[in-house]
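Bench notes, afternoon.
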Amino acid sequence: MLAGVLLLLIYWFQDRLVFFPSTIDETQGDQTASVQEDAERVSYVMEDGTTVAGWKLNRSDERLLIYYGGNGQELSGQVRDMDDFDDWSVLLVNYRGYGLSEGDPGEDVLYSDALEVYDQVAEEYCETAVIGRSIGTAVAANTAVERDVDQMVLISPFDSLAAVGSEAYPFLPVETLLRFEFDTASRIQGWDGPLMVVYGEDDAIVQPERTRALLEAWDGEADEVRSMPGRGHNDLQLEPDFYSAMADFLRERSTTME
């Protein structure tokens, strides 16, 4: 009886196990924009009337880079970390319920919001690239395939959330309980552009086996796979060349840079 109640609670409240949104206020939003001279606050109204918000670093009239964060990543802190991408305008839009974005997060709206934002912004640029981290890798892959994206970088990617959950909770029927797929292995099919993959060899949340399973499931072959010894899921950015390596990858494969 107790086991049944526990499973029912996990099923109905799993949103809180998958998404960890945190909010900021208007003052913090303005302060974040002031961190970088080229940063501005941006917001976009989705088809259902919900507004998602974030920041844009205006550095290029030709190239746009869009970043999709992890499930616990509110993006105000990311603004300062994008210095290495000085050849790209960088778009950082929080998921629903994160930062100053309205609404509640969910798998389908993460995909649809990403596509709507892309359609509102990307046509101004000649070249686009996406970076996704953790759960954001499924969003990045979906956007890259559904739209004419030129390059993609995936940080701590996995084949599916069910596979990740089954490893974390082997005593639970995760595939039966899980209402979210985040099936990156399916979303990435059809992508044939440049791809870089970055992951930590000591990642206990998205274990390296899940990253390798994604690459094996994909029909293509990654241009660069960088494994970071001694790094886990949340400390990859402490590696000295974490951002610069990705920036170099995008720069070397850019179609608009000489």
